[in-house]
Amino acid sequence: MQKRQFNRAPAMRDVAQAAGVSAQTVSRVLSDHPNVQEVTKRRVLAAVEELGYRRNNTARALVTGLSRTIGVVTLATNNYSRSSLALGVELAAREAGYAVNSVTSNLSTQGLTEAVSRLVQQGVDGLIIAAPLQEAARRVREITARIPTVTTDGSSGMSDELVGVDQESAVVLATNHLLGLGHRTVWHVSGPPEWSDAASRLDSWRRALEKAGREVPPELHGDWSPESGYRSGLILGRMPDVTAILVASDEMAFGVIRALTELGRRIPEDVSVVGIDDIDLAAYATPPLTTVRQSFEDTGRRAVFHLLEQIENPEAEHTHQVVEPTLVIRKSTAPPPSV
Amino acid sequence: MQKRQFNRAPAMRDVAQAAGVSAQTVSRVLSDHPNVQEVTKRRVLAAVEELGYRRNNTARALVTGLSRTIGVVTLATNNYSRSSLALGVELAAREAGYAVNSVTSNLSTQGLTEAVSRLVQQGVDGLIIAAPLQEAARRVREITARIPTVTTDGSSGMSDELVGVDQESAVVLATNHLLGLGHRTVWHVSGPPEWSDAASRLDSWRRALEKAGREVPPELHGDWSPESGYRSGLILGRMPDVTAILVASDEMAFGVIRALTELGRRIPEDVSVVGIDDIDLAAYATPPLTTVRQSFEDTGRRAVFHLLEQIENPEAEHTHQVVEPTLVIRKSTAPPPSV
DNA sequence: TACTAATCTGTTATCGATAACAAGACTAAC
DNA sequence: GTTAGTCTTGTTATCGATAACAGATTAGTA
Fold first, then answer.
1. Phi-psi region for residue A333, left (φ > 0), alpha (ψ -120 to 50) or beta?
2. Contacts of A83 (CB under 8 A, 6+ apart)
3. CA B100 from centroid of its chain's CA atoms
4. For B67-165+297-323, which CATH superfamily applies?
5. Which nucleotide is closest to B55, CA to C1'?
6. What is the CATH code for B12-55?
7. Do residues B165 and B157 lie in contact, with contact meaning Cβ atoms separated by under 8 Å?
8. Where does CATH 1.10.260.40 sit in chain A?
9. Where in chain B is CATH 3.40.50.2300?
10. In angstroms, rounded to a whole number, what is the distance separating the alpha carbons of residues B47 and B29?
């Protein structure tokens, strides 16, 4: 009489029995331990093959305390930066033999703490938080106290774990490009201020203008969406002395361009527009968008590497590298109209 | 002498001890079992609070055989459909109290089987495969034999688990819109043939033209990328009798529009262009893109619901619903130029 | 030869929870 | 007052692996 083995997945002891060895030996073979005879190893592997055995990661995780899984928190909006960062994390994690557990959240303190909580409870070995924490920072820190954590947005005050792109130089590149073309000054459509990337772009833009001795016009606020860019564009397009606009994301830049076009202002003849990100569609805007490339996919990858360092070598000092962005000049920028 | 309790996360027995009850009682309280005295419950919850206890999901999964995690396989390319589907899955899973484990793959049989394998080994309760399986179907089926699985691309031959959008009517909507404007026929830039969505769009386009008694021109093949749309556009733009183009995705449509614009063909005065998907940027194309809306986020959500039904009620019959797409008319379509 | 060291394999305890069973206290019904 | 039934709690076995220890065999060396 069998013991309801009917449809159960084979366990290690089934393999052991089939190979005529102990479970421990099977474990050793599968973990590539050195001291196993070649013959035994072959017998075990044959049994594994025959039974279609797969090691149960849950059981492994329980006894080793390591799940080889990392958790990722992103915001629940489908924009380019989110998805390409997630993709980068995914790819890098896979290469390193880690699985990825992802959770989305809104911007609220409650949402973020819940998201992090969930992942911790799932037993992840480390965490990547790709969202501005702000007031949630303190509670999140408590929850993640025992777990290596990397944040990709600096607003959290967890700055020692930050991984990002050099926003300052991104903006300086763009601003100087426009000033270099002869524009008197550069207007700015910024991202939502709770994102540290947006905040530091705003900041750097101001400083770049000041440094060049130009007038600093008031900024307009967007929320990363093309709609918000469109609304800003409707305002800027009505102001005749606006000849150059730096938009904090390509997606908003599409909205700005649309609004300007509807108002009859030609790009780049009347107004120059520069975006940031270099999304796939930027080259296919009308006109093709001049922008500052920063690879979110790469940021995701680096976040993973940084995290794995912390996981596998917790004692060491970890410096956070910053990546240099590059300016991609297309057709949306030109010298200002001669007066 | 303590037993290296130094920095260990508290376990259930720690809570039990603190509350002066057995571990089983703690378990019962946390699982909302009915037969626990109010007083006891309060004492347990107080201890949980005090120690900052979180239930270990790994241990639960091991003993219950359920991880409350679902696995998602997507392709490793960052396009709109992938990311919004993933987002939909994410959100729906969270609402249902499930975690999401995501893996990306390439299109190869090996890549796909490995991806699925990984997830199975991670111990997911169910699988969503958002990639065309094709020849991988057989091996994947073997691997997922014991696990509920939903595919969102029909090319797999696992059709009984399919969840999707009615591609036929999407294309008919678009084609008839163009014919209704007076175009003699409609050209088509298709997606990669290994995607069943692309294949059925191609098919439906042909049949729609035949049914209307129109000439069926040869189709051009793209790969979902804006670049491929651009290349197709460079060809179509040189053919003076092309006045209406149905593009199998909005992202490719951006490329087509760019190419046509560069060749001096005005949209929609000279050529009408219709996309499919209604991505966020479609409304901000130049001109705003007429397209057929189909919500990938929604497809993701429905895939989850469908999967959870299978998980929680394996015996029942599960019919796969199909969603009706809607035509969104913007500015990229108009009657053909009068000759 | 004898004694140490290195290889190989097996046994037992353990990770942190839940399932299944058991037992005591109390209530209800005859 | 006994018996059965409900409510509440505890005890033990178990999920599937690995760690730690231990025993047996072989090899190496004084």
1. beta
2. B78, B82, B83, B86
3. 13
4. Response regulator (3.40.50.2300)
5. C17
6. 1.10.260.40
7. no
8. 12-55
9. 67-165+297-323, 167-294
10. 12
Nucleotide nearest residue B14, measured CA to C1': C16
Asked whether the beta carbons of residue A87 and residue B78 sit closer than 8 angstroms, the reply is: yes
User: Along chain A (339 residues), what's the average pLDDT of each consecutive run of 10 residues?
Assistant: 52 94 95 91 95 95 95 94 95 96 95 95 95 90 90 68 81 97 97 92 96 97 97 98 97 98 97 97 97 94 93 76 90 91
Q: Which long-range contacts (CB under 8 A, 24 or more apart) does B42-51 make?
A: B43/B19, B44/B15, B44/B19, B46/B19, B47/B15, B47/B18, B47/B19, B48/B15, B50/B18, B51/B10, B51/B14, B51/B15, B51/B18
Report d(CA B334, CA B339) in Å as an integer. Answer: 14
**Chain A residues in contact with B261 (beta carbon < 8 A):** 286
Class of domain B167-294: alpha beta
Chain-chain contact of B58 with A67 (C-beta, under 8 angstroms): yes
Q: Rounded to an integer, what distance in angstroms lies between the CA atom of residue B109 and that of residue B115?
A: 10
Q: How far apart are CA B215 and CA B218, in angstroms?
A: 10
Q: Which fold has domain A67-164+297-323?
A: Rossmann fold (3.40.50)
Q: Which residue has the tokens 């969840």?
A: B163
- Span A56-99, pLDDT tens digits: 999 999 999 999 999 999 999 999 999 999 999 999 999 999 99
B66 CB and strand D closer than 7 A = no
Find out whether the peptide bond into A132 is cis, omega within 30 degrees of 0. Answer: no
Q: Least CA distance to B251: which residue of chain A?
A: A281
CA dist., res. B239 & res. B123, Å (int): 55
Measure CB to CB from residue B84 to each of A56, A78, A117 and give the nearest one.
Answer: A78
pLDDT of residue B154 exceeding 80: no
Q: What is the pLDDT at residue B160?
A: 59
Beta-carbon contacts of B92 under 8 Å, excluding residues fewer than 6 positions away, are B300, B301, B304, B305
- State the span(s) of chain A assigned CATH 3.40.50.2300: 67-164+297-323, 167-294
Distance from CA of B240 to the nearest CA of A (A): 22
Å between CA of A93 and C1' of C7: 36
Per-residue model confidence as pLDDT tens digits over A252-279: 999 999 999 999 999 999 999 999 999 9
